[in-house]
Structure formats: C-alpha cells, structure tokens
From TrEMBL:
Annotated RNA polymerase sigma factor 70 region 4 type domain residues: 123-173
Keyword Transcription among record annotations: yes
Organism (species): Tomitella fengzijianii
Subunit and partners: Interacts transiently with the RNA polymerase catalytic core formed by RpoA, RpoB, RpoC and RpoZ (2 alpha, 1 beta, 1 beta' and 1 omega subunit) to form the RNA polymerase holoenzyme that can initiate transcription.
Biological processes, Gene Ontology terms: DNA-templated transcription initiation
Gene Ontology MF annotations: DNA binding; sigma factor activity
Residues of the RNA polymerase sigma-70 region domain: 15-77
Keywords in alphabetical order: DNA-binding, Sigma factor, Transcription, Transcription regulation
Short name of any one Pfam family annotated for the protein: Sigma70_r2
InterPro entries the record matches: ECF_Sigma-70_Domain (IPR052704), NTF2-like_dom_sf (IPR032710), RNA_pol_sigma-70_dom (IPR014284), RNA_pol_sigma70_r2 (IPR007627), RNA_pol_sigma70_r4_t2 (IPR013249), RNA_pol_sigma_r2 (IPR013325), RNA_pol_sigma_r3/r4-like (IPR013324), WH-like_DNA-bd_sf (IPR036388)
SUPFAM superfamilies reported in the protein's UniProt record: NTF2-like, Sigma2 domain of RNA polymerase sigma factors, Sigma3 and sigma4 domains of RNA polymerase sigma factors
Protein name: Sigma-70 family RNA polymerase sigma factor
C-alpha cells in the first residue's frame, strides 16, 4: 500500500510539473481559460485512471490535452458564430501577474518565455481563430512549443507530411494578418503607465495625445454587459474614456495595471473588488492603435469575483447627472 501511495504521489507530482505547459497548449488552441482548465483537468483524470507509464510524460499528456482541446474547439466554433457582438479570447494574466493560471514559466529559456507571451496576445489569438482546429493545433505545437512533426503527427493523428501542410497553411494565414507591436516590452509598459495616469486624471487633451488618429475601442460584452465599441477617432475616444472611467473611480472603483496576454493592460474593479472589465492595449509607433476590452462576466470569473457592470454604470450615470445639476 505504501508503495502504491508513493507511486501515486510521484505521478501526481509529474503531472503538476507539466500543468503550466498543458494549460498553455490548451489555452492557445481554445482561447478560453475555463475550457483550457477543464481540458487540463480531464487530462489528469484520464492519466490517473490508467497504469500506462509513458517513455515521455510530456508527450503523452500533451497528446491527451491537445486532442481534448481540438474536440472542444470544433463545438466551440459553432457557438462563436452566433456570439453576440465581438468575440475575444478570455483575458489571461501573463508576466508577474500570472498567478495560479500561468504558474511557473512553461519554457525555461527567457527568450522563449517572451515569445510565448507574445503568442497569446489578443491579436495573435484572433488570427488563430481563422484556422481549422487541426491547423491551429499544428501551428501552436510547432511554432510556439517547438514540437517536431513526428511528435505532432502522433498527437493529431495525421501523417508527418499532412502536419507539415497543416502548419504551412496556418503559417501563411498568420503571417498575412500578423499585427505589428512595439518590440520593446518595457517601452510599451512605460507608455501604458503614462496613458493610464492621464486616464485617471481625466485629462482629455493628454489622453488624445496617446491615441492614434484612427484608434478603435472594441468591447466583448457578449450581449450581457457593455456595448460593442467602434473606431471613433482620437478626440472622441479620449472624451468617452474620461467620461466613462473617471466617475467610476469617484465611486471607489479601481484601475489596476497589469500585463494581460503579453500586452499592457488593466483590470477595473468596483469598490467591493468585483471585476468589471479587463483592458488590453495594442501599441505601435508611440500611439495606442486599439483598446480591447472584455466586460462579458462569463469571461472574467477567473480574474476574481465579478461585479455588476450594469448596476455600477447606472450608479455612475446618476452621480454624473447629479454633479451637473449641482453645478448649475
């Protein structure tokens, strides 16, 4: 019995060591934190239920989690086609904000870790949405995790030649639409800090200076909370941002800066700590090109307790109207 318990503990420890890598694979295929966590948990249940002792535990577990993720993605694509408004991947904390979801860096090499963070950017994951499930899996396993075609063939159940074709088609699609960001991550972070300072101060003119002329603010509210956003231009966007955020802060809300999906971002919480929104900034040439926000509460639960955006917005609007009347 003691030997069995020791073996079970050893298997559990081996799995936990690989959990961050398994989650990273599943998330990049699925774009959903909840679905990726479910796939990883199902992978553990299947591994725990078998006596198989694979030559490579990583290859064995990656095979299971990838196949599970492909199956989930095939059904998820149907749901996304009928999704209300813009669809974004669930915001994922990266860098020092990773916490329990990301865990220790899945890849020890710092340069590869940086590449991994870039590969989960909102824009990059949206490009992957154009691919078939097998193309997406082949691309992620080869270009992000460095798996060779022999291993990928075993994982996805296709020949090596077919996997080369799948990855090649995926590469062409991704390269054709690949977004351009500032190369220096620290430079982006400093720029974002200055932008959020201006936002918290409600300085419309200063805010406008941070925005590209054709800046777009796009929101994934899932038809539940918040609108869809649009490209309003720098001047109008600056006013909208100040009018939306500053009164919220006056009610006790907070804007916590963090890195999400390898990009500068922020999480807005109500005065009780409930998550209202997650923002990610696309920055190029010292201007913010796109502000992507997620307010769909179903996509925010992994970031903490979720607040009521509608109720908070109504309270903000009442306070704003009251303030205007008081100034008359």
């Amino acid at each position: 019995m003691a030997r069995q318990n020791a073996r079970a503990d050893e298997r559990s420890a081996g799995f936990e060591e690989l959990r961050p890598t398994l989650f990273a694979v599943a998330y990049q295929i699925l774009g959903s934190v909840a679905e990726a966590e479910d796939a990883v948990q199902e992978t553990w249940l299947r591994y725990a239920a078998t006596d198989i002792e694979p030559d490579s535990l990583q290859a064995y577990l990656c095979t299971i989690v990838t196949r599970l993720s492909i199956d989930v993605l095939r059904s998820a694509r149907v749901r996304r086609e009928t999704y209300a408004g813009p669809w974004f991947p669930e915001p994922l904390p990266t860098g020092t904000d990773a916490g329990r979801l990301w865990g220790p860096a899945p890849i020890a090499d710092p340069a590869r870790t940086a590449e991994l963070a870039d590969s989960v950017s909102m824009a990059a994951l949206l490009l992957l949405e154009r691919l078939s499930p097998l193309e997406r899996a082949s691309f992620v396993l080869h270009d992000v995790f460095g798996f060779d075609y022999a291993r990928i063939a075993t994982i996805v159940g296709r020949s090596e030649a077919a996997c080369r074709q799948l990855r090649s088609r995926a590469r062409r699609h991704v390269d054709a639409g690949r977004p351009r960001f500032e190369a220096d991550r620290r430079q982006r972070s400093v720029f974002a800090d200055r932008f959020f300072d201006a936002l918290q101060n409600g300085d419309v003119e200063e805010l406008e200076a941070f925005l590209a002329a054709d800046v777009a603010t796009i929101n994934d509210g899932g038809g539940i909370a918040g609108g869809a956003g649009a490209a309003y231009g720098a001047q109008r966007t600056a006013r909208l941002l100040a009018n939306a955020v500053v009164p919220l802060l006056g009610l006790g809300a907070t804007l916590g800066r963090c890195e999400l999906n390898g990009q500068p971002g922020a999480i807005i919480r109500d005065r009780d700590g409930g998550v209202l929104a997650a923002w990610v900034l696309d920055i190029l040439d010292d201007r913010i090109q796109t502000i992507r926000s997620v307010t769909n509460p179903q996509k925010l639960a992994h970031l903490g307790p979720v607040g009521d955006l509608r109720a908070t917005a109504l309270e903000r609007n009442r306070a704003r109207r009251s303030g205007r009347r008081g100034g008359v």
